[in-house]
Specification:
The structure is a single chain. This protein is mainly alpha-helical. It has a single domain (2-107), classed as Orthogonal Bundle (Non-ribosomal Peptide Synthetase Peptidyl Carrier Protein, Chain A). The chain is built from three helices and four strands. The protein has helices at 2-8, 11-46, 65-104; strands at 56-58, 61-63, 105-107, 114-116. A two-stranded antiparallel sheet has the order 1-2. A two-stranded antiparallel ribbon has the order 3-4. Helix 2 packs across helix 3.
């Protein structure tokens, strides 16, 4: 039981829980923005009061494709925000960190292990190398 408690108290689990809660709240904001502001603005040009009223009927079944359009727009907005606010900055940071690390190390010409650029001897094979 102590292992389970330790697992739950790890930072990763708590961070994930916070991210899910914030993501749900953000999703509600975006859904409200799309349903209450964006689609009425778009549909004003088409003469309809709201996308959510769009439907077609087959027999006794109503197919509310307007709600589907709202959901698609919400998904695209959430995906764009996640890409531009999380993925793109993280990728930029990761690439910058990788290039910084790459500039401080080089390969040993004898054993091809990674050594600091200023090293005069390889730690793995003891070969003498010229510092860069």
């Amino acid at each position: 039981m102590s292992g389970f408690k330790k697992f739950l108290m790890q930072g990763n689990v708590i961070d994930l829980a916070i991210a899910v809660v914030i993501g749900g709240a953000f999703s509600a904001i975006v859904n409200s923005f799309v349903a209450d502001l964006l689609t009425p603005l778009i549909s004003a040009f088409g003469g309809l009061p709201d996308f959510s009223t769009l439907k077609f009927t087959i027999g006794q079944s109503n197919f509310m494709y307007g709600n589907f359009i709202n959901a698609v727009i919400s998904f695209i907005l959430i995906a764009a925000v996640i890409y531009f606010m999380v993925v793109k900055p993280y990728t930029h940071y990761k690439d910058k960190a990788a290039s910084k690390e790459e500039a401080t190390h080089r390969d040993c010409p004898e054993c091809l292990s990674e050594i600091p650029r200023a090293a005069s001897r390889c730690a793995a094979c003891s070969a003498q190398v010229t510092p860069v």
